[in-house]
């Protein structure tokens, strides 16, 4: 991508719980307009990093800049302004259980914008259509939805304000392969049309292959590799080799490798 | 990336003969809120009277799904008014966005309006069915509980002593300070009012009889049961409810462990043991309160108080109160468990069930106390 200012810039980040350090001096840049796939073994701190950037986990050391501003030095007002420029989709959906899907999508609109109820209803309908949910899902409660539908509804809520930066925590886990592919297509389209920057924690090798521009790998509290897919495949770090050349990777890799030949 | 909404959505119209050229300017994004809504409304009327219109995107700095959707809606409005409208000058990205966010007339259908009488009848019907359902559930629950208890008696291995002791600790031991305090206070208050009111007839020493009988027969057990319903009944409902929400109850069931035996029975046994014990403590605390007040207001020494009390009450007075305790515990535990298992997916439903649990069990405790009063009166015990 371009040499523009990174949208997210993390320097020397240290986060730990009690005596246990999870992140030990982590550095990471996310360039505008890129889709970053963040990988790492379970329990390595992928979610901790995401939560630290979002300001949900306290950090012991380091600087986190989002949109070029240090999130620690921000006034509460500009922090609020920042929060409407990003959308977050949590792993479990985190839909408000006492609101319908429609009301969930409208919650950020209601909070930040002055729109007529009619337009909000219509926009909620549009978001539902974008994420591939049927219109009759609008008036359902989260507990009445299947796991895949919860994911889609959570994405619709994350997209409610048409954010510039989107955080996705394992967006395709729990989706069937067709749904996951649709999801990837949707992210790709939004990225292309809205200039969306996406920070995606994922284990889905398909997503990594098809929509991520850059991949960052986390191990031992640090980013051990950061670059395009080719660099990951070429890396001889044992964990990366196991990850990208393992049994599960083979099936996906083979057609890709055959293509140029 | 520039800050959003620094330039509001706007447009200008140029007319040449029967065709209009609508030039859009600014950021057509949702961040503009009302301005976006208004601009889109005006846009749909912009080309009125023209035969064909061209919507030019050259001046649009930013466009998002909401903007694209509203512009497309305006275009379709024009089309419906007989104006052949089309887009021009959109970059490939914007063209894709316009296609993705194409306007489709609202599929959100409104629920038909019901008339008030009908709604009332439907509400009444739903309520009656709900009540009937609750009674059936209650009976089924009692049966399942009795079966579980029987099984434990026949086959003591199925008992879960660790769990029972754990719950006994939280329901009984940890409740002692609060139960003792409120009963002490109520004992004081009853004695004080008794002394004041009976003094008018020169019978203030009878305040001791009143405290003794009232506390031991009714107040001690009633206050303790209400406190336990609020304290432990709510906890049981919330625990079982959140376990049900997170499929923990289902996890037990598929392991072949009956939630009734694993979750409800230990809590039930703990409650049935805890409430009589707490009632004894509550009774003592209330009598102590009466004694302190009698000394302070009437100068009755503890020795005299004890003698007077011995004449006023018999063993039966004490037992009448105590015998009610396990039944009240059973009612509290049953309502708490039934409400807990009725929790559905949402946080709101959990709140509603916990409220229902506490309100219903307090009501039932008082109702039961009334039944016992009638019963003991009729057998003159």
UniProtKB/TrEMBL annotation, chain B:
Cellular component terms per the entry's GO annotation: ATP-binding cassette (ABC) transporter complex
Record keywords: Cell inner membrane, Cell membrane, Membrane, Transmembrane, Transmembrane helix
Function: Could be part of an ABC transporter complex.
TM segment ranges: 138-159, 171-195, 207-230, 275-297, 318-338, 358-379
UniProt record similarity statement: Belongs to the MlaE permease family.
Cellular localization per UniProt: Cell inner membrane
An MF annotation (GO) of this entry: phospholipid transporter activity
Membrane topology: Multi-pass membrane protein
Cited SUPFAM superfamilies: SpoIIaa-like (SSF52091)
Protein's UniProt keywords contain Amino-acid biosynthesis: no
The UniProt record lists the keyword Transmembrane helix: yes
Superkingdom, taxonomy of origin: Bacteria
Protein name: ABC transporter permease
Organism encoding this protein: Rhodoblastus sphagnicola
Stretches assigned to the MlaB-like STAS domain: 22-93
Record InterPro entries: ABC_MlaE_roteobac, MlaB-like_STAS, Permease_MalE, STAS_dom_sf
